[in-house]
Specification:
mainly alpha; two-stranded antiparallel ribbon; 67% helix; membrane; DUF1624 domain-containing protein; HGSNAT_cat
Length: 358
């Protein structure tokens, strides 16, 4: 049976749905106290639907790397050129993340320049998975996944505690980045960043599991997605009794749990879109994923800086009071409207064949 060549609509659709979900949870109209729980991150340990979004995106980075690189390697493409192009793209993704944080700092008085971030982690994981995809074989990928997950677990245990601010991940990030992190404890000066440096080790394992899934998909071994996904979920659930799910620390159990769920989602989208011919809902977000995410992040910096956020908040609060409905519904309506706005933008871009690539 021949291998699949080129893009798959199902992966564009899954990536796009993931980006749309990311915009939905990142951009509520009111604060977290007025948000339905599925649209919030777990406070610390645990895993909500929102906690699945970023791991799914990193998993899809791995899937896409397999679909993009393996056909080129089979056709005799230069390994050095493939890796060189991947490193340049990874650097651009990291620099875009830093530029967005700098933009936020310039428009928000008193803000520190945050160095880690979502795009920075995507860039690092893409660079790592590209090296594995080009220079190593699947057996090495599985060895690396085991070493990363078990080794990271060992590091967390060596740190002595998983508590915020004092775990080994936060201590390392504080030592390296100082105040240039997502959160600071005013009392101690300790920092915390959910996209910190040390926890990227486990996030890379998530991306490598996506690389394995993409290889199965290319070779039409889709049953492996179901089996490996189910096994990963069971193993992660058992593991969580010793090492809890924690997105902030990207614990090894969390990495395995979310990758297992992403494998099942990949199988489902492939079955419905590629095999059954369903419409690839979300594709327009998927083919302009970085543009949609970066544009939405920039907009969410401009809106508060311009004073419009206070206006929107006041209107939403007043409407929920006058019409006597749950303010969480008003907050969700704002988030849905934000996603619809960006869907219209990527729809227009797609119709004009504008695809922003880094």
């Amino acid at each position: 049976m021949s291998a699949i060549q080129g893009r798959l609509s199902s992966i564009d659709a899954l990536r796009g749905c993931t980006v749309a979900a990311m915009l939905l949870v990142n951009d509520p109209g009111l604060d977290d106290a007025h948000t339905y729980w599925p649209f919030e991150h777990a406070v610390w340990n645990g895993c909500t639907p929102t906690d699945l979004i970023f791991p799914f995106f990193l998993f899809i980075v791995g899937v896409s790397t397999a679909l993009a690189f393996q056909p080129k390697l089979e056709q005799g493409a230069s390994q050095a050129k493939l890796v060189g192009g991947a490193m340049v793209r990874a650097m651009r993704i990291v620099l875009l993340g830093l530029a967005l944080h700098l933009f936020d700092k310039l428009l928000t008085p008193g803000e520190y320049l945050r160095i880690p971030g979502v795009l920075q982690r995507i860039g690092l994981c893409f660079a790592g998975v590209s090296l594995f995809a080009v220079y190593t074989k699947p057996r090495t990928w599985w060895t690396a996944i085991a070493v990363l997950l078990l080794g990271y677990w060992g590091l967390l245990l060596a740190g002595g505690t998983l508590d915020r601010w004092v775990n080994i991940v936060d201590r390392v990030d504080t030592a390296i980045f100082g105040h240039a992190v997502y959160q600071l404890d005013a009392a101690t000066g300790h920092g915390h960043d959910p996209e910190g440096l040390l926890s990227t080790l486990s996030a890379l394992a998530t991306t490598l599991l996506g690389l394995c899934a993409g290889t199965w998909l290319r070779h039409r071994q889709v049953r492996n997605l179901l089996v490996a996904g189910a096994v990963s979920i069971v193993m992660a659930w058992i593991w969580s009794y010793w090492l809890p799910f924690n997105k902030n620390l990207w614990t090894s159990s969390f990495s395995l749990w979310t990758a297992g769920l992403a494998m099942l989602a990949t199988w489902l989208f492939h079955y419905l879109v590629d095999e059954r011919g369903w419409a690839p809902v979300g594709r327009r977000f998927g083919v302009n994923a970085i543009a949609a995410y970066a544009g939405a992040e920039a907009m969410q910096t401009v809106i508060p800086a311009s004073g419009l956020q206070d206006t929107f908040t006041s209107l939403l609060t007043r409407a929920s009071t006058q019409w006597q409905f749950d303010p969480r519904m008003a907050s969700l309506a704002y988030a849905v409207a934000f996603v619809v706005l960006w869907w219209l933008i990527v729809l227009l871009m797609d119709r004009r064949r504008i695809y922003l690539k880094l």
